[in-house]
Amino acid sequence: MKVCAFLTDGFETVEALAVVDILRRADIKIDMISITGDINVKSAQGVIVQADELLDEYVFEGDELLFLPGGPGHKSYYDCKDLLELLKEYNKKNNRIAAICAAPSILGNLGLLEGKKAMAFPGFETQLTGAVIITAPERVVTDGNITTSRGMGTSLDLGLELVRLIKGEELAEQLRTSTQYI
């Protein structure tokens, strides 16, 4: 399985790159895809990241895991109609979708969390429309095809959960130990 991480100006640096790092350590193919029309994307913390691809040029195979990092730029996801349609299409096919911090609000506002356990950065729970809200001390939750997490401090938890879902518990635990996240 391949993972697609969508970047927009104002994304949260650690939320995106910690997940990318953990997945690449697990030899999971992950492409960073810019939705801005520019290959260089500036994070909320002023870090410029070169995406692997532009959304307009990316060829989806239909079985990717779609990942939305949070940060103040998450509002730009609403302006990207192609991404919103892709999220709805993937959810309808029960394909995996992950989001962290403020980004689960996108899934909630699209109606993709109906009846599912989900979490978001505190204060965004009201936008998780139809979800069963999970709060601290939980750090990440997977319900069916949707995985959500709370924020920058839970980024490694999210990455390890995605490794567990894609490649199994044993590899996730090996990575937890080898990265000293124990």
From TrEMBL:
DJ-1/PfpI domain span: 1-164
UniProt-recorded name of the protein: Chaperone protein YajL
Gene Ontology CC terms: cytoplasm
Gene: yajL
Database matches in SUPFAM superfamilies: Class I glutamine amidotransferase-like (SSF52317)
PANTHER family from the UniProt entry: PARKINSON DISEASE PROTEIN 7 HOMOLOG (PTHR48094:SF12), PROTEIN/NUCLEIC ACID DEGLYCASE DJ-1-RELATED (PTHR48094)
Domain of life according to the entry: Bacteria
CDD domains per record: GATase1_DJ-1 (cd03135)
Xref: Pfam families: DJ-1_PfpI (PF01965)
